[in-house]
Amino acid sequence: MKHYLALPVIAIFTSLATLGSSALASSDGVNYPEKPIRLIVPFAPGGPNDTVARLMTPKLSEELGQPVVVENRGGAGGVIGTDAVAKAEADGYVIGISSAGALAISKSVQDQMPYDTLTDLAPITLIATVPELLVTSPDVEAQTLPELIQWAKDNPGYLNYASSGPGGMQHLAGEMLNYEAGIDTVHIPYRGAAPAVLDVVGGQVDMMFADLPILLSQVKEGALRPIAVGSKTRSSALPDIPTTAEMGLANVVAENWYGIVAPQGTPEAILETLHTAFYATLTDPDVVAALELQGLEIIASSPEAFSDYIAQETQRWADVVEATGAILQ
Amino acid sequence: MLDNVLLGLQTAFTLENIMYCFGGVFLGTFIGVLPGIGSLAAVSMLLPLSFYLDPTTALVMLAGVYYGAEYGGSTASILLNLPGTPSSAVTCLDGYPMAMAGRAGVALFITTIASFVGGSIGIVMLMLFAPLLASFALSFGPSEYFALMTLGLIAAAGVVQGSPLKGLAMVLLGLLLGAVGADVNTGETRLTFGLLGLYDGISLVALAMGLFGVAEIISSINTHKSASKDMSVRLSSMMPSAEERRKIGLPMLRGAGIGSFFGALPGAGQSIAAFIGYAVEKRVSKDPSRFGKGAPEGIASPEAANNAAVQAAFIPTLTLGIPGSATMALMLGALLIHGITPGPGLIAERPDIFWGLTMSFWIGNIILLILNIPLIGIWVSLLKIRYNYLYPTILCLICIGVYTLNYSLFEVGLVLVFGALGYFMRLFGFEPAPVLIGFVLGPMLEENLRRAMLLARGDFMLLLERPITAVLLAISAILLIRIAVRIVGNARRSSVSG
């Protein structure tokens, strides 16, 4: 019996101990890593970033020869946790798994950004992208995107769309659809994606854009109707669902992504070690299979390509915010 | 049904699952007893373990921690006036006076029984009505939630004990504290003073631990003694009297019913269930003045309610595949890690998981019952520890617990600020419970009203066309009128007599 209880107790103590130990070890990068590495997830446990992190850490720990410990620091749509990475000591022992919101979108929609992604963080790799999927409640009659748009035009100001909150990708994707298709659907914000999805399933709200993985089982069970994916190519998880571009809205592009960042100033050699370990993890067949099951399209890019991608996305979302007028401050 | 139950029993009754169930509920009880460390932190620390376990076993263990914590949560409320979990804050109101009167053993015994009854009824609901309750929950849109929260806020007025005016002031303070953070409609920040740590609002745990826990510790600084030196802990001294046994029967059932209802609604939660359970008992009681002075109903009902609510919380999560709370999201995460995407088809596709888990709830609740009765003696003897050893330890535990939620020192600071606030509130006779009610219900009420108004394009009358909303608002109006009539009546009587 003791054995079973010992595990959780050890888990608690080791996670507390790793918090304190970061100040002690040396960090010249020669023997890196010589102590556990903290992987900050800037969201509460159980969310997509968290799942991706936890699916990678066993293989990653093996590659690095040191345990990689997931640390959840949620708040402010990922900004607080990402800021913790930006402000951490640049010794390679604190890295973060952040995503489009905190790395590229927040800059355009939040006024108190405590960091600048491109100058305060060192990108390591773009792990994967995941399309935003437009779904409707089964009560909505339209079966395709053109039908939906036509219906919205015939009944202006009637349809509602839900989102995980103002200024998030789901909100901006909805506004982008309004703008590009010339329709007028009303934004109904929620606190997080789960309650929003629940109300679309329940028919309280007509439709929403959300990360494909969180909708997948509802779509497969027929509780939600998939209309189109916001990625440039079709998703391997739902190959029958057309992209928004195929349906004539080439400018409605919305895909979330997850990437690994370190504090700016982390020694080049350490970044190299980390990138190699992440690359090995993201090409491991078991990890790949597990991540693809979550609906992710794995990229495993180079640091330079990730950096360019962040710059590109930051500019694109800034343009969307400006064009649609979905500005907060 | 019988086949499913058998399949569930087969799954739950493997040695491995029973062991992990025991481990989960045992750890959960401790997590619940320790103020500040909640089931969310415990489940997230255990989540990595689920990699190495069968998905059902992982869920059995994590769920055990979750509902086990609800059993333990009331222990510190009763003994020390420090709620172990926010949902057991209301248990302080009558549990602590009972302990002060030397009846801590009885109070703990009642909570254990009430927790078991509440939990059991919650499981029965889960077994019999999961799909039905889930589709009912889906019919609750923003306007229904708004009406429900309105009703809750008015009903919870019963929790106020002393001066109604002071109580009202504290509810308003709670509403104000609840308004802190980014506005959910516009993203505009309110009352954050430029602090990023307040962007998502004040954490419920920080507020509850500060107002109740730290405030209690500060006010006891001058007390060097221990609470009680000669508390007997024999089984006979823990047994409620015949009169008490009679008194808690119906409140437990009512509490369990209320808890099952609120638990099945993904947008409500255990804290509300406990508050409403308490308020209802006070309202139906022939002698409401006993409440707050150690009325056994005042602990039986909320404890049955919060335990029924944790079990019923699995209904929306497992039948719809959409988590109702952060802890539930974690549990679904344990399935996702194994490549099982929980959705509306989970019960049909993986009956072993659903029914195995449900049957493990029975095992867990029975273990908790057996585990908790002997533990009562140990908990009560904790009171023999001198305060100058006990309280610094508890203060450390609160700080560690709050810190582990988000690894945020800011929130530890918040706890201390609210501790100081709670201490001054005590000095001037303001109660902390109404603050918590305003804080929990206010944001939900506001958010849902604004969402409902957006959906109705600003036409409030459209809300009243929805039957559930209309009924709930009508009950709220009747309650409000009755309270007003009583207050006016009391005022007249006192002016006549004075």
Automatic annotation (TrEMBL), chain B:
This is DUF112 domain-containing protein. Keywords: Membrane, Transmembrane, Transmembrane helix. It holds the Pfam family TctA. Residues 18-436 form the DUF112 domain. It comes from the Bacteria. It comes from Halomonas campaniensis. The chain crosses the membrane at residues 17-37, 49-69, 106-133, 145-162, 168-186, 198-221, 320-341, 361-382, 389-410, 416-442, 463-485. The keyword Transmembrane helix applies.
